Amino acid sequence: MSVIISRALPDARDGLKPSQRRILYAMNELGVMPGRKHLKCAKIVGETMGNYHPHGDQAIYPTLVHMAQPWAMRETLIQGQGNFGSVEGDPPASMRYTEARLEHLGAALMTDMEKDTVDFVPNYDETRTEPTVFPSAFPNLLVNGGTGIAVGMATNIPPHNLGEVIDAICTQIDDPDITLDGLMEFVKGPDFPTGCAILGTAGVRQYLETGHGSMKVR
């Protein structure tokens, strides 16, 4: 049960599912950092599958593509080069044609990882280790949201504006007793990557207060 949940639902600490975390970590190990040369996605997928996630390229490449699509992620974690699909639903090019490297925020999730900030565990064949979670220099789960369906439970967290979330966190640190109304002065509501009009704020307040709620968007 715990394995199913961990695979299907994002971790609240870094906002990632294991497949996403392993792709980003493999890219970090390959040195595909911001400002460096892009690397063929086939190489990244092969590194991920061979060392950390032995579930086939069809389980890895779509996840990589998703993290590079600005209409799918509020803040992309991977910078793609080539045909990564379109907002209309066109498929991406084959991984032998596309290239990628980490975005600055993708790299920020792994900041100070080498300083014993997180636990490492052996990979599937015990030839190397991988992190159980990323240190996360920014609150990825709130910024990019997350969706997942597991046995008997599901989540669908909307994305929020990075600047608003950081301002709210800084205010919470300065004033631990701040109320929801105080936080909502900074975080007005969701911030979807494609843009929309949110009809009414009652649902926004409800999900921020209770963790459950719905809203209408147009």
Describe the structure.
- It is a single chain.
- The protein is of the alpha+beta class and 218 residues long.
- It folds into 2 domains: 1-131, Topoisomerase II, domain 5 (Alpha-Beta Complex), CATH 3.90.199.10; 158-217, no CATH class.
- It has 9 helices and 9 strands.
- The protein has helices spanning 2-8, 18-30, 41-51, 57-66, 104-108, 140-144, 162-174, 180-184, 202-210; strands spanning 39-40, 78-81, 99-102, 120-122, 129-131, 146-150, 153-157, 198-199, 216-217.
- The strands form 4 sheets. It has a 3-stranded antiparallel sheet with strand order 1-3-2. Strands 4-5 form a two-stranded antiparallel ribbon. It has a two-stranded antiparallel sheet with strand order 6-7.
- Strand 4 (120-122) and strand 5 (129-131) form a beta hairpin.
- The model has no long low-confidence stretch (mean pLDDT 93).
